[in-house]
Amino acid sequence: MNAIKKLSPLFLFFLFSCSSSNPKEMARAYCKCFLEAGSDQNKLNECAELAAEHKEYLKDPKDAKTYAEEIIRCAVYEQPENR
Questions:
Q1: Rounded to an integer, what distance in angstroms lies between the CA atom of residue 33 and that of residue 48?
Q2: What is the DSSP letter of 64?
């Protein structure tokens, strides 16, 4: 029972952070997924699904632009150390 009480806030944080409609936060989540995936095809597929979910929230062109700019920033500046 104590474990459930301790995990509940963590679960709620994860749930709300994943459903964020902030384009920068969504882009950072995608970027993190992509960088952690490396060459793992299953993980890359999960990242693609995440991007598809994000697309549903990016109806506003301004939000889509912000998302794309953050993805580019991530791709340029947050590369893994071991290329």
A1: 9
A2: H
